[in-house]
Amino acid sequence: MLEVQNLSVRYGAITALHGISLSVPAGGIVTLIGGNGAGKTTTLRAISGMVRPASGRIVFDGRDITGLPPHEIVRLGLAHSPEGRLVFANLTVMENLRMGAYLQRDARWIASELEHVFAMFPRLKERIDQAAGTLSGGEQQMLAIGRALMSRPRFLMLDEPSLGIAPLLVKEIFARLVELNRERSLPLLLVEQNAHLALEVSTHGYVLETGRVLLSDRSEVLRDSPQVRGAYLGG
Amino acid sequence: MTEFLQQLLNGVLLGAIYALIALGYTMVYGVLRFINFAHSDVFMLGAFVAWVSVEKLGLPTRSLLGGLGALLAAMSVCAALGVVIERLAYRPLRRRSTLTVLITAIGVSLLIQNVAQSPRLGFGPNPRAFPELFPSSQLHVGGLTVSTHQLGVLAVALVLLAVLYWIVHRTRIGTAMRALSFNATAASLVGIDNDRVISFTFGLGSALAGAGGVLYAMNYPSIDPLMGTLPGLKAFVAAVLGGIGNLPGAALGGLVIGLVETFVSGTRLSTFRDAIAFGILIAILLFRPAGLLGKPKVEKV
């Protein structure tokens, strides 16, 4: 479904990605793990068009999307819930969700997506007219995911959905994501600091280090790999 | 008491015009984080478009339809001009520093002023008498003298403010403007074409400036190519006073500046009328830099 080939990204003089390749199959959950500065977020940013790759190719659903601007990539069905969530703090919960469906004009269609998001995260419905900036971290994360889903994506990328959220909420959010993947066979590409959790829910994993792919395998294999256990799972 | 009410009315009128201009500054600041110094010249051109449509194109004067026609012409031409200025002068600099864009804006402003002053390309440097666009008569309410012109200015300003509020808060593109002003990256990730929203913002702000120019000329019935500078600067002060980037703030700031200026004009300090606005700017920058309605920004590191 998504193929990344030899992707390199530079920020000025600094090379953040040195030609990484990865693929996400239809219906799969793939995770990128690795320490700070490994290039996980940069990889997502390059795929969604936020940064322009220096070289390499990104193919989504058979189409080369390398170098397209973000709003055109979203239009193709590839949604990105970014690092730090970036919900529109000055807009209400409802307005945020409606902006998620910005490219969608059919009112009935939007209403049915709203239902779906509210069924997934009932808390958002309770806060519908509240400014998003006043939500708790966990609620903002739910809103960011909900907003990404409002475009009814065919592919969803999530950057650190567990960051700064109470462990109980993290469990809830991940449970919803797995359900989503099963019920809609929505492929997920997940960046996570919490490698333990990420390898539990995913089918495949890539371990990144300083802009290169160090290891890649099925998640249960990575879970048992001594190298991963030592470096990322706390022994 | 009568004099107070009379001055209050005059102040509200002037303030409503400042508010219309200030909204353009603040909207553009909201989406691009820079001050569009050419805005005051778009305001000037608004007055001239109305003048041209009456004097050269033959729209009837002292007529409700003719007046509305001239107003709509000014708003449409200014909207188009705002879009073109953004497209040609600012968009190519999107990834440059704010200072670069700011200097370019001053350049665009000077260009418009000089072209307008040129007798061959523009209108020439001399002031022109502004025609009476709408039918005019004086009404006496109690001891107050109110012209239908003044009521018209107030009505038009209020309608435009209401329409603007509706666009920004109730429409898809208006919500996109607010989303973009919060975070451009997040906006593009939900599929918003930021360039289109920025174009729309310039068009909308410039239409308001054009309307402001016509309303201003109706009150001070002589126009010239440099007429935009002072009201433009005061409207800019109004936007900062209200909190730059904050729409209700710009409207409030405009009203405050208009009222203060009018009341000062009525006292022995009247020669300091224009200095007052800039005094307010200095005070606000010293004591409340975020403005009356703005929230102080905490820079994250």
Describe the overall structure:
The complex is a heterodimer of chains A (235) and B (301). Chain A has 235 residues and is α/β, with parallel strands linked by helices. In chain A, 39% of the residues lie in helices and 26% in strands. Chain A contains ten helices and ten strands. Chain A has helices at 40-47, 70-75, 93-100, 107-120, 122-126, 137-149, 167-183, 195-201, 219-224, 226-232; strands at 2-11, 14-24, 29-33, 55-60, 63-64, 78-81, 155-159, 188-191, 204-209, 212-218. In chain A, helix 3 packs parallel to helix 6 (137-149). Helix content of chain B is 69%, strand content 4%. The N and C termini of chain B lie far apart (55 Å). Chain B is built from eleven helices and four strands. With 301 residues, chain B is mostly helical. Chain B has helices spanning 2-32, 39-55, 64-90, 98-117, 148-170, 172-182, 184-189, 194-219, 229-242, 247-265, 273-287; strands spanning 128-129, 138-141, 144-147, 222-223. In chain B, helix 1 (2-32) packs antiparallel against helix 10 (247-265). Chain B has a two-stranded antiparallel ribbon. In chain B, strands 2-3 form a two-stranded antiparallel ribbon. In chain B, a hairpin with a 2-residue loop joins strand 2 (138-141) and strand 3. The A-B interface holds A 48-50, 69-71, 74-75, 79-80, 82, 86-91, 95, 98-100, 102-103, 147, 150-151 and B 172, 175-176, 178-179, 181-183, 185-194.
